[in-house]
Write a structure and sequence with these properties.
Elements: E1 2-5, E2 8-10, E3 18-20, E4 22-25, E5 28-30, E6 38-40, E7 43-45, E8 48-50, E9 58-60, E10 63-65, E11 68-70, E12 85-87, E13 90-92, E14 110-112, E15 130-132
Parallel strand pairs: 1-4, 2-5, 3-6, 4-7, 5-8, 6-9, 7-10, 8-11, 10-12, 11-13, 13-14, 14-15
């Protein structure tokens, strides 16, 4: 396995390129393009991505640990493929539309001011995660552990309390009504 440590990648265009069996540790990716790139058996540890585009990239057997994404685009990524591991991630100002996180352990991940439309969190563990100022329109939560998740400033979400675990999840008074969406109620 190749090992890359403390490197700064700036303005790199890796559109449609393949990365196999590479460990990236403490690397910084600034204004990089990884659209349609393939990451297979890679490891990202203590890295950061800023103003980068990873849309439609494919990830398999890859671990991402303690990584921060700032103002980056990650649309249409299926993170649930083949034994991927995502832990201690922070997303700030990112576009995560149409991502699939099905069945993943996403405990304590942080999402700040992100657009997460049409994302799928089915059967994921989001315990202790936070969605601060995030737009969750049409995001799917089904049999998802949302224990202690902070939704206080999240918007446009719809969560069925009967099909998800919501123990000690945190909601603002105004957005708790989103838990009633499935009942087609008229609230005045």
């Amino acid at each position: 396995m190749d090992f890359i440590e403390d490197e700064v990648w700036k303005n790199v265009d890796s559109n449609k390129k393949s990365f196999t069996e590479i460990t990236f540790e403490k690397c910084t990716f600034q204004n990089c393009t990884f659209t349609n790139a393939i990451f297979h058996k890679c490891l990202f540890v203590d890295c950061s991505f800023s103003s980068s585009d990873l849309s439609m990239s494919r990830w398999s057997e890859t671990s991402i640990k303690n990584v921060q994404f700032d103002e980056s685009k990650l649309t249409g990524i299926d993170f649930s493929l083949k034994r991927n591991s995502l832990s201690r991630l922070t997303f700030k100002g990112c576009n995560l539309n149409y991502c699939i996180f099905t069945g993943l352990n996403l405990q304590k991940n942080e999402y700040h001011n992100c657009t997460i439309r049409n994302a799928d969190f089915t059967q994921s563990n989001l315990k202790d995660a936070s969605f601060i100022d995030c737009n969750l329109a049409d995001a799917r939560f089904f049999k998802t552990d949302l224990s202690k998740v902070n939704f206080t400033s999240a918007t446009n979400f719809s969560i069925d309390p009967e099909n998800n675990t919501l123990t000690k999840a945190i909601f603002s008074y105004a957005n708790v009504l989103n838990l009633l969406d499935k009942y087609d109620l008229i609230i005045e």
